[in-house]
Amino acid sequence: MIAVGIDAGSRALKIALLHSGTSEILASGVVDQGVKQEALAKALFEELLDGSGIERGDIDAVVATGYGRDTISFADMTVTEITCHARGVRMVVPDAMTIIDIGGQDSKLTRLDDGGVVRDFVMNDRCAAGTGSFLEVIAERMKVGIEGLGEMVARSRKPAAISSTCVVFAETEILGLLAEGVPPEDIVAGVLRSIATRVSSMAGRNVRPPIVFTGGVALIPGMADALESALGHPVVIAPDPQMTGALGAAIVALGLKASR
């Protein structure tokens, strides 16, 4: 039988299917988020079932997490993304002690105890200039895809100082730097360093390695390096970092099935 985790994030919707007996990932998928979140979730769910030859009757439990979790009416239960990322990260990096999750609308830093249980967390959902949506704005301004930001950072020789915490002011600041002739690659490198500095401020001095980086922003080359520099500790990118929330939700679903 099979457990399903759905992570209805602000920028992408992710689904993972786990085998109830072996905890093997049988199928997973990601689609861009939209207005009709449940319709997107159902379509991706059916696509994963069809592609893996799984029948709807084989599903034991469905757990939803993320910003849009309450829109998924076919979920048996909803759980916060803090809990789900902790469970998902501990499955792929069993000794993880600190989780950094940078998504489309917020940044989160979660501390775990030795058993992998959430000890505490801090969230930054007011500073839009520290999230994935801001990087999308920067990529559009630089006329590259979001994946192209990493290539620009690799060419940087002197990251620019970006001080604004508001997207509007930060974009104005960036336009000013471009007008001054600052190389675009140095501006992008400065943006990544600025985001990393904000995460470091959230963490304070209480950061215990191993530190695992999750979320869509973890896919941008150079972001993990910027975090390492700001935190003073190595940062490990979770395998398939976009999927850790959905994976954790599926693990919770395994427990839900077992309790029935």
Features:
260 residues, alpha/beta, Nucleotidyltransferase, domain 5, five-stranded mixed beta sheet, globular
Walkthrough of the structure:
The structure is a single chain. Helix 2 (81-92) crosses helix 8 (244-259). A 5-stranded mixed beta sheet has the order 3-2-1-4-5. It is α/β, with parallel strands linked by helices and 260 residues long. Helix content is 40%, strand content 22%. The chain has 2 domains: 1-93 and 242-260, Nucleotidyltransferase, domain 5 (2-Layer Sandwich), CATH 3.30.420; 96-237, Nucleotidyltransferase, domain 5, CATH 3.30.420.40. The radius of gyration is 19 Å and the shape is globular. The chain has helices spanning 37-52, 81-92, 132-141, 148-154, 167-179, 184-203, 223-231, 244-259; strands at 2-8, 12-19, 25-32, 59-65, 77-78, 98-102, 107-112, 118-124, 211-214, 235-237. The model has no long low-confidence stretch (mean pLDDT 90). Strand 2 and strand 3 form a beta hairpin. The protein has 8 helices and 10 strands.
Structural class: alpha/beta
Separation of the first and last Cα atoms: 14 Å
Helix fraction, binned, reads 25-40%
Q: CATH homologous superfamily of the largest domain - what is it? A: ATPase, nucleotide binding domain
What CATH first level of the largest domain would be assigned?
A: Alpha Beta
Q: How many strand elements?
A: 10
- Round the Cα radius of gyration to an integer and report it: 19 Å
Low-confidence stretches: none
Task: Briefly note the CATH topology name of the largest domain.
Answer: Nucleotidyltransferase, domain 5
